[in-house]
Amino acid sequence: MNQQADDALTMASDSELEAHRKLDKSLFSGIAWTAIFRWFAQFISWAIMLYVARILSPDDFGLSAMAMIPIGLARLANDLGLDAVIVQNRDLADDQVSQLGGLAIMVGVVLTLLFLILARPVAAYFNEPAVAGLIAILSLTFIADALQILPRALLQRDLAFQRLAWINGLQMVATSAALGVFATIGFSYWSLALNAITGSVVVTIVLLIMRPHRISLPRRIKSLLPSMISGSNLLIARICWYGYSNMDQMIIGKFLGKTLLGAYSFSMTFARVPNDEITSLVGKVVPGIFSTVQKETDKLRRYFLMLTEALSYITFPLALGLMLTADDFVRLVLGSQWDAVIAPLRILCVYTMIETSQSLTSHVFLWTGRFKLNMYFSILSLF
């Protein structure tokens, strides 16, 4: 009897070890595939962006930044936080998932109509009539994004990181290629809106083909209520994050004008390169991994500490190097017309180093189902 018990214990231990190795393999292969596709796409994206920077003016980028402030905020509400709920809650029935997808599409349509109405008032706030047209075009992305929610969430839950990496890379390439084409043929600031809708439409079609799922109108609201409450908690957290992340641009755009806002937004883009190109790789994989081990505290702690340490070792030197060489970097890459980027770039590099060290904290809350706790911390961050 003792021998049989020992054998059973050994088999269970071996099975657990094998599952542990399989999850590790999914994590590292997911990061690797994400890095390969993202960096390849990013190389193309940056090459086109540097080319476009010599065609378009800081004023053009400033107009785009003004339009993206309200659009970006609304895009947080586009999915009502339901994408995260679908990834985290693995007990949702197919019928519930399809109804959540239908609810997201309804919200996307409403937001599109709302921003078509609000385009002129927003432009009046910035005293830039051209912003109205940009907002009208960008509002169409709400419908495309809503159609992507189910396939993206289900691929994440399936740990299909290679497919997700390919899709994200495709969106970057399609968006950048469209930007280059539109800017070259003389669309000026319109290029910065037309490229976004082009990339969204292309990827939406690919996602619906690659991971189809039935979509239905929400009928049993009571069965969806827990998911909607969790989603609303996440939505509030995202709005708080967007508030403290974009308040600086709103103030600059309102009181200092489009030229300085264009320079500041460009400095933000460069300062966030270490975070966007390294930390975001992990962020694309973490939801599926953390939600898989959400009930196993030891494994969750191990992944959190290991990934946070690795991110700090990589991003800190990159941000510090960019801060110290900001003047040479800007003049070499962008030209002397962008000298206004240098000072804010140095300051924002310091912020990037701080941000990286706590970038995975919210992931722990989200993918273990602590949506309300994550919301409370996000509200506190505003103060």
Descriptive overview:
The protein is mainly alpha-helical. It has one domain. 84% of the residues lie in helices and 0% in strands. It has helices at 2-53, 58-77, 82-88, 94-126, 130-138, 141-157, 161-184, 191-210, 221-255, 258-271, 273-292, 297-324, 326-333, 342-357, 361-367, 371-381. The N and C termini lie far apart (63 Å). The model is unreliable at 5-9 (pLDDT under 50).
Number of strands: 0
**Gyration radius over CA:** 22 Å
Distance between termini? 63 Å
Query: What class do helices, strands and sheet pairing give?
Result: mainly alpha
Low-confidence stretches: 5-9
The total number of structural domains is: 1
SSE topology sketch:
Elements: H1 2-53, H2 58-77, H3 82-88, H4 94-126, H5 130-138, H6 141-157, H7 161-184, H8 191-210, H9 221-255, H10 258-271, H11 273-292, H12 297-324, H13 326-333, H14 342-357, H15 361-367, H16 371-381
Task: Give the structure's gist in a few sentences.
The chain has 383 residues and is mainly α. 84% of the residues lie in helices and 0% in strands.
List key phrases describing it.
383 residues, mainly alpha, 0% strand, globular
